[in-house]
Amino acid sequence: MKLRAAAIAVLSFVGMVDSLYLSLKRGAGPIPCTITGGCNDVLYSAYSELAGIPISWFGLAFYTVALSFAVFAGFGQTRSLAWIFWPAAAAFAISMGLVGIQAFVLRAYCEYCLLSAGLVTAIFLLTPRPRRAQPA
Q1: Which end of the chain is flanked by fewer CB atoms within 10 Å, N or C?
Q2: Which CATH class is domain 2-126?
Q3: How confident is the model at residue 87 (pLDDT cuts 50, 70, 90)?
């Protein structure tokens, strides 16, 4: 269990760095995009904000929560790792939707966004599933 918590913590930390970079860099000019070449198209599109808040800030919040619960699990709070499941499931669904928008609507890809989608997927797959209540 501690290995799983450590893996989720490392993935969450990388996600925090990625999200924070995008959050701070956005609006400060073009974002360097050497692999995919479409970062600015994606990050300045109509799909990059929700209620005026850049989506990268929501990603930062998710990664912060996931890192916190993973650290708690690493220090013996074993149930806290299961608390990541539903936020990770929501983040996974949202990430897949955003990748779909990149592929089919914008036809441009952001390497930072794809990294985040991969990290969210890995966190979701590593998170233990909630157990069903046993009938009495």
Answers
A1: C
A2: mainly alpha
A3: very high
